């Protein structure tokens, strides 16, 4: 079963928004054995959209379209589809009532413009939207079945999982391709690649590759099998081998982040965390509290950006700062130790550094960061030189990741 995915939106063709829908749909289709042959991005214009729908229906068995189902003047997917089908648009009263109910539940009047979302090409059928106002559309043209879904990622994903995916799964009969990404931190892409070089050889099944993203190295696995069971067996075997070779560099899989993993570790261990941040400005605390369930493990965090704040809020002696500077091993140690003592937490992380682009010296260059990690038994301080070639936001982000990785390893007993 060949499939083509069409993403619609001026914001996509202009580069203002990154198209995540296509990647997500491609992965779901591979899982059921559908072969995605083409990705197409089209502006909100009837003529090019009509042309691409016609072309896709000539080449594929299934055409998935996302976007252009809103209620504004530039939402033209339904009009383009009707033109391709050679029919007009008609109002679906059931869908209109569902849209009205959506606004009623939120105690808001329904704008007249939303009526247009209940218009469908004659002969097509609606696909309910349980997360928003725009129903999807199911239609047939030539050899292809067409599914039109909203461009809003969550609305599209729920609609696919609930209605579109199950329909397609019954039709697919090709090889199943399953994917997984092993997430690592603490080594460069070249080192990771060297350790798993033979697993990355061409022609191997599963295929293995690496991707670097802001110091996190993802090891991608794609396993093909005649059925799901075979693909899962191949995937699990390769994933286990990668984890064995990379050891503690591996922190999670797929959508795992260092902060989500650390949060789970803390909760599982029944431990509490507090943070004292300078150059990261609260990024570590924000990352932890972005994770569901973090209230079970996070006590508090302070941002002591100035020297005075370090003394006032964390009781770091002013003469210690004067003697060594705010960006120093002794100050990071005092920040972490006092943060843990004052908050009553089991662990405390401190960060102080020079994020740039100015403020560096030959002795203390931009990118120099000291990270303190205190528990009841000891307080270790790690010096990290991230490099002045990084941007300010990159230095802050990497300092956050280094700090959380140190805590992850400590929680593992390393």
Question: Can you tell me about this structure?
Answer:
By secondary structure, the protein is of the alpha/beta class. It folds into three domains: about 1-170, 3-Layer(aba) Sandwich (Molybdenum Cofactor Biosythetic Enzyme, Chain A), CATH 3.40.980.10; about 175-255, Alpha-Beta Plaits (2-Layer Sandwich); about 260-410, CinA-like (Maf protein), CATH 3.90.950. It has 14 helices and 17 strands. It has helices spanning about 10-15, 20-30, 45-60, 75-85, 95-105, 155-170, 190-195, 230-245, 260-270, 285-290, 305-315, 320-325, 330-345, 390-410, and strands at about 1-10, 35-40, 60-65, 90, 120, 125, 135-140, 145-150, 175-185, 205-215, 215-225, 250-255, 275, 300-305, 345-355, 370-375, 380-385. A six-stranded mixed β-sheet has the order 2-1-3-8-7-6, with helices on both faces. It has a five-stranded mixed β-sheet with strand order 14-13-15-16-17, with helices on both faces. Strand 10 and strand 11 form a beta hairpin. Helix 3 crosses helix 4 (about 75-85). The longest helix has 20 residues, at about 390-410. The two termini are about 50 Å apart. The model has no long low-confidence stretch (mean pLDDT about 95).
Shape from CA axes? Answer: elongated
- Kindly provide the radius of gyration, computed on alpha-carbon positions and rounded to a whole number of angstroms: 27 Å
Mean pLDDT across residues = 95
Tell me the total number of β-strands.
17
The helix content is 25-40%
């Amino acid at each position: 079963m060949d499939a083509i995915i069409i993403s619609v939106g001026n914001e996509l063709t202009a580069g203002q928004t990154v198209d995540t829908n296509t990647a997500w749909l491609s992965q779901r289709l591979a899982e059921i054995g559908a072969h995605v042959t083409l990705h197409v991005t089209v502006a909100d214009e009837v003529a090019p959209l009509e042309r691409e729908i016609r072309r896709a229906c000539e080449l594929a068995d299934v055409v998935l379209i996302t976007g252009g189902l809103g209620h504004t003047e530039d939402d033209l997917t339904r009009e383009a589809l009707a033109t391709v089908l050679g029919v007009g648009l008609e109002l679906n009263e059931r869908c209109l009532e569902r849209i009205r109910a959506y606004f009623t539940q939120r105690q808001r009047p329904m704008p007249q413009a939303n009526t247009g979302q209940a218009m469908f090409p004659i002969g097509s059928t609606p696909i309910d939207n349980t997360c928003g106002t725009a129903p999807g559309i199911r239609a047939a043209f030539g050899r292809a079945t067409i599914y039109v879904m909203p461009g809003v990622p969550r609305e599209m994903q729920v609609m696919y999982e609930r209605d579109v995916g199950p329909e397609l799964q019954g039709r697919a009969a090709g090889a199943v391709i399953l994917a997984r990404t092993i997430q690592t931190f603490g080594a460069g892409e070249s080192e990771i690649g060297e350790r798993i070089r033979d697993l990355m050889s061409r022609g191997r099944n599963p295929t293995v590759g690496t991707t670097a993203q802001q110091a996190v190295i993802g090891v991608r696995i794609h396993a093909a099998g005649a059925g799901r069971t075979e693909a899962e067996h191949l995937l699990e075997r390769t994933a286990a081998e990668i984890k064995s070779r990379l050891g503690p560099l591996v922190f999670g899989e797929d959508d795992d982040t260092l902060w989500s993993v650390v949060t789970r570790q803390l909760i599982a261990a029944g431990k509490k965390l507090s943070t004292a941040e300078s150059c990261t400005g609260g990024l570590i605390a924000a990352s932890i509290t972005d994770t569901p369930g973090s209230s079970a493990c996070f006590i508090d965090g302070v941002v002591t950006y100035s020297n005075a704040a370090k003394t006032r809020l964390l009781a770091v002696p002013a003469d210690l700062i004067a003697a060594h500077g705010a960006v120093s091993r002794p100050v990071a140690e005092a920040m972490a130790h006092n943060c843990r003592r004052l908050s009553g937490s089991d662990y405390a992380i401190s960060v102080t550094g020079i994020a740039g682009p100015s403020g560096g010296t030959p002795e203390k260059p931009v990118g120099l960061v000291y990270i303190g990690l205190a528990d009841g038994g000891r307080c270790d301080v790690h010096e990290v030189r991230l490099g002045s070639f990084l941007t300010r936001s990159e230095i802050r982000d990497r300092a956050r990741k280094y700090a959380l990785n140190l805590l992850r390893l400590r929680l593992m007993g390393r």
